[in-house]
Specification:
Chain lengths: 487, 302
Amino acid sequence: MKTIDIFSFALTNFLRRKARSALTVLGVIIGTAAVVIMLSIGIGMNKGFEDQVSSWGDLKTIRVYPYTGQFNEETGEYEMPDETEPLDDITVQRFRDELEHVKAVSPTDWGWSYMVKDNKERNDAGSISLLDASAMADMGYEAVYGRLLDERDVGTTNFVMAYNVPFNFYNVRTEDPKYGEYAKADEEFPFDPLSDKVKYAFTWYYGYLRQAVDTTKPRIVPEEAKCVGVLVQNETNIKNYGYDNDCDIYMDINGYYAMQERLQKNQNKYYGTENEVGISIGGSSYYVNGQQVNFADGRENKYNSVIVIVDDVDHVRDVSKTLIDMGFETSSAMDSLDRMQEQTKFLRSILGAIGAVAFFVAAISIANTMVMSIYERTREIGIMKVIGCKLKDIRGMFLVEAAIIGIVGGALGVAFSYGISALVNKLAAGGGMEAFGIYSSDSALSIIPPWLDIAALVLATAVGVISGLYPAIRATRLSALEAIKNE
Amino acid sequence: MAETVAAQAKKEPIISIKGLTKVFTLGKEKVYALNGIDLDVQENEIICLLGTSGSGKSTLLNMMAGLEKPTKGSITIFGERVDKMSERKLAIFRQKNMGFVFQAYNLLPNLNAIDNVSLPLAFAGVKKRIRVKKAKKMLKLCGLGKRMKHKPTQMSGGQQQRVGIARAFVATPKIVFADEPTGNLDTHTTIEIMEMMVRMSRENHQTLIIVTHDTEIAAYADTIYHIIDGRICSVEDNREHQALPPEGHIGDLAADEPEVGSEAGEPELEMPAAEAESSPQEEEIGRILQNSQIPNTLSTEE
Ligand SMILES: Nc1ncnc2c1ncn2[C@@H]1O[C@H](COP(=O)(O)OP(=O)(O)OP(=O)(O)O)[C@@H](O)[C@H]1O
Ligand SMILES: [Mg+2]
């Protein structure tokens, strides 16, 4: 028999018993939709966690710290390693050389200083994000104006600023202090931030420009510095909140550390004391739980932490593990994500199980329909056998009919689940997400990725064929003789 | 005539049955449905298995068709042991060599006449366009030119049986089995149906095996085997007194379809096989035979 004839026979039979075929298909629709919806909720939850966690920090970023020991759960004692790998330039170089799947490695730290413009305006936001100037491009920063820091800026106080920074200067004599002014999307700068005429300087002195200078004391000398670029606004934040809240200055870490020393000396001279400001400079001894940490080879811990940016989210766990094996402590948004997903695993597997049960019921319904249909058609099948229909063709007809039920049910089921999914998301938008511990505003509770459509369709068809297997084999075993004996 | 019989007797039989016995065991009781049947059937022969109810005729026919296995003995058709064939092989063997006409017609209720008739061709893997053409031609030959789209329930018993005949002959099988083909029909229709079957098998040089309890039907056969209690008790050469379809009846038969009726007409009635070959209709059927054999041989893959 030609394949097309087997299909057309199967289709004719499928269409012949409309009510029953429709009911069986309905079973498959419900089964498919159940699986798709349950899985889509699981996927939506994971996506929600991901969105939420990545709003805390990029998922591809790993923060590395020196390993300083941990509590032993049994003894309750804090156990410190005899020797710890320090975070210094050797370590940074080692990460760059040895780690695979890594896009950028940079020491990081936070600095702080008041910022002075043209010696008459101040910006008190003050946060300085420290990094290795040569790694800035690899770390994924992007300049909208000017350029990023690069090799040329290593060891200097050249800086890049966030888009908001120019909006936060205020005239000490005429204006109230500004705290966190956020520019609108693409808002024009109040002045040209890269103009040669604009002079920037940093100082730690709170009263600078603000208070009358005590001329009996040594003069406060702000550190002049050059701005080389302005960063793009964070699109996601603009989209979600209407503004980007980044008000930081970005500077080379070693350049800053050097400036920090100069600022401190100047400050101390002014106050005439050594420790008035009380800022300790990186590289000093490292204490944990009152115990001093011994660093390997007598090296010093130069950096607070080192950031490792991985090329792909899928490699984060591996790189993290490698770093731990190298003797460091790590933390990443991925850790939190894993923890959250672990916590909802049970819930998600229950959802999956509900879908699976629905599908199983649909499979039984297909098998039942096919068996019934064989009982009804015993005589017909017998006649076909007598007049020369091959066994494999009879088997084929029934398998194809079952597959048709599966495909039609699967396709309609997938279509149906889009409706349900939209409904679920509408309901969830009114607080349903929080019920699952997801606080990300732009995530949907139910997400149907394209692969799920295809998988559901393939699964429904496969279930159809598998449920049709037994009935089909049964059909070929029917006695032709019984069929043609006069009733 | 006598010469032809002698010549045929010398030829290899296409069906050869030896010592065929079928025993049904019902509890402690043994029923000998067949008890040592020996039977040879020649090519182009029309035979009749005649006997009373329960004599074992159907059992014998079913066994020849491979639908039932014998307890003892052998059935050889075209040199192949039908009783030893697997189900799979039998399906192909039947598809290639056998046609069936049933007492209860056994048409598929959801298919119309054309689809029912083209069924054996579909099983043999013939393309839809070709098999529909053949089925239509066959239905016209059977006088059903105006009933082609009808479903079985929309036809009379006689019409259904004509569809059954068209289906049995459409793939031009070498052997056609007919078990009580007219059992459910009145006398007039019985004559029509019998004449049609005989005519067709003559035209195509087919072997026709008829099972009946009716001596009037047996009269259409070349050879009549009288069966009593599972044994052949006598063989009757019927060629001399054969009931040949008179001209008038064929006209009636094909009244449905005038053009075909006139074409299908007279020359075949006398039935000297050699002469019949020259008729245009004969050629047509011959072509059908040839065409349908191409896919048949192809489909013997195993
Ligand atoms: N499956 C079976 N089981 C038991 N006995 C059977 C079976 N089939 C047939 N028989 C017996 O075998 C004998 C022959 O049956 P068969 O059907 O061949 O008769 P028949 O000549 O065709 O009769 P009819 O003209 O009534 O159709 C009967 O006695 C019948 O009871
Ligand atoms: Mg019988």
